[in-house]
Amino acid sequence: MATAPATKRYTPDEYLALERKAPYKSELLNGFITAMSGATRKHNLIGGNLHALIWNQITERPCEVYMGDMRVRTSPTGLYTYPDVVAVCGEPRFLDEEFDTLLNPTLIVEVLSPSTQNYDRGDKFEHYKAIDSLKEYVIVSQHEILVEQFVKRGKKWMRTEYRDLAEIIVLESIGCALPLRQVYAKVKMADRGAGGD
To answer: For 94-109, b where at least 16 C-beta lie within 10 A, e where not — what string?
Structure first.
């Protein structure tokens, strides 16, 4: 995530007015807007694989899955952000008639980047935990075979780690199964690329 000097605090309404006209995506947190950086080929491949795997399994059920451009609000005064993949089962609820800010995600998936991995595992996850509807949070590495699944059990979040391409991640919250081999389809781990996220 790219950072810029914070010079002004914005209300959520001011942020949304700017964001809906902007040519790039930004997050809002505690009144400060932060531009989001672009993604690498591997990041896009993994995000696309995840979206396709989930979409293929929910087409006949009352669930929806979005990739990259669906904004999520964690609380009225909290974080406004764009998860890499987000799914909702049941009736989706939106902030307003623009239908571009989801309020009740069931599952959120983030593909880790060098510049965001600590944030995605730490502060961002803490904001996500404030969403009552959220049942599962999944973070996926793009530089090694590693998927971390966090499932809400009562008030606790239980973590499971996957490192073997033969494993299958079961997403109980949306009734889907993700074979790790397909999550990482076409992704070559030896090809780290030059910089970027």
So the answer is: ebeeeeebbbbbbbbb
How many folded domains does the chain comprise?
1
Contact 39, 197 (CB under 8 A): yes
Tell me the whole-structure pTM to 2 decimals: 0.91
68: left (phi over 0), alpha (psi -120 to 50) or beta: left
Total residue count of the chain as it appears in this document: 197
Q: Tell me the longest C-alpha to C-alpha distance in the chain.
A: 49
d(CA 177, CA 162): 13
Q: Round to whole Å and give the CA distance between 20 and 73.
A: 15
DSSP 8-state class, residue 26 = E
The domain that holds 73 is classified in CATH as: 3.90.1570.10
**Tens-digit pLDDT profile for residues 81-94:** 999 999 999 999 99
Q: Is residue 149 part of a domain?
A: yes
DSSP result, 65-83: EEESS-EEESSTTS-EE--
